[in-house]
């Protein structure tokens, strides 16, 4: 028994010595091998170009990445406003045209803010579609005001696409304008065509009503129809009773 244990320990020690000697021999053979260019040369070359035993190539850093192509910005709705035009508050003042150049620069759009330019553009669109000079609350005027606001939001969203608040306001204004145009199309179709033509609006029809049909929705719809029919039937009976009572009162008076 003791002889078997001694034999096993001798074999284990000899195996460890053999593995260490084989690893050292492999390393020495790799280091002393002739330097020839092959497919495995980049894996054994160091950062300074000298070959080593287990050196690796430095990581490649992609500094020259392709830049993202930005789409061209659409033309602004304020681009057609000439810088020599007077502001909205001074357009009806006759002395604004006869002042010197320094004062005229302050009164024109050359040094005006974005808000002042937007006010002038809104008045231009209103003048194209309003019914008379004092019209400020008709459907056409409201569509013109919303169109100016929507286009301003669109230009802002092109520069700041992550602005969620203004995006929500833009979508709300678009929905409101759709409702007004839908009503105007049903009531006054000629005015609807004029507004779309003057303001450059492309009216798209709303999508057809779609809803995922379920058993619950079908049962609810059938119940609502049955209730509506029953209510109409009772109203009809009440109207008949009212007519009969009126006829009987007339006959008694006669």
Give the overall form: flat
Which radius of gyration do the C-alpha atoms yield? 43 Å
The poorly predicted ranges are 33-52
What sequence of helices (H) and strands (E) makes up the elements? HHHHHHHH
Helical proportion, percent range: 55-70%
List keywords for this structure.
254 residues; mainly alpha; 8 helices
Describe the structure.
This protein is mainly α. The chain has a domain at 88-199. 60% of the residues lie in helices and 0% in strands. The protein contains 8 helices and no strands. It has helices spanning 2-31, 41-44, 101-107, 114-129, 139-159, 164-187, 189-199, 215-253. Helix 5 (139-159) runs antiparallel to helix 6. The termini are far apart. 8% of the residues are buried. Residues 33-52 have low confidence and may be disordered.
Could you provide a short overview of the structure?
With 254 residues, this protein is mainly α.
Topology record:
Elements: H1 2-31, H2 41-44, H3 101-107, H4 114-129, H5 139-159, H6 164-187, H7 189-199, H8 215-253
């Amino acid at each position: 028994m003791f002889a078997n244990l001694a034999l096993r320990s001798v074999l284990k020690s000899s195996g460890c010595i053999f593995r260490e000697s084989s690893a050292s021999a492999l390393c020495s053979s790799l280091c002393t091998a002739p330097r020839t260019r092959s497919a495995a040369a980049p894996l054994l070359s160091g950062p300074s170009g000298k070959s080593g035993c287990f050196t690796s190539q430095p990581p490649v850093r992609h500094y020259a990445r392709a830049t993202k192509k930005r789409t061209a910005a659409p033309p602004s709705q304020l681009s057609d406003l000439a810088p020599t035009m007077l502001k909205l508050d001074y357009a009806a003042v006759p002395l604004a045209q006869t002042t010197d150049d320094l004062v005229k620069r302050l009164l024109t759009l050359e040094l005006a803010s974005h808000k002042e330019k937007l006010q002038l553009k809104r008045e231009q669109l209103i003048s194209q579609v309003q019914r008379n000079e004092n019209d400020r609350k008709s459907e056409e005027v409201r569509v013109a005001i919303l169109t100016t606001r929507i286009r301003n939001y669109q230009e802002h969203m092109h520069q700041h696409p992550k602005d969620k608040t203004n995006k929500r306001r833009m979508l709300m204004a678009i929905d409101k304008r759709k409702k007004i145009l839908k009503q105007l199309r049903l009531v006054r179709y000629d005015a609807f065509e004029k507004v779309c033509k003057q303001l450059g609006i492309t009216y798209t029809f709303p999508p057809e009503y779609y809803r995922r049909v379920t058993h619950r929705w079908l049962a609810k719809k059938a119940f609502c129809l049955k209730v509506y029919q029953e209510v109409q039937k009772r109203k009809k009976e009440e109207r008949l009773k009212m007519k009969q009572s009126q006829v009987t009162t007339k006959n008694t008076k006669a």
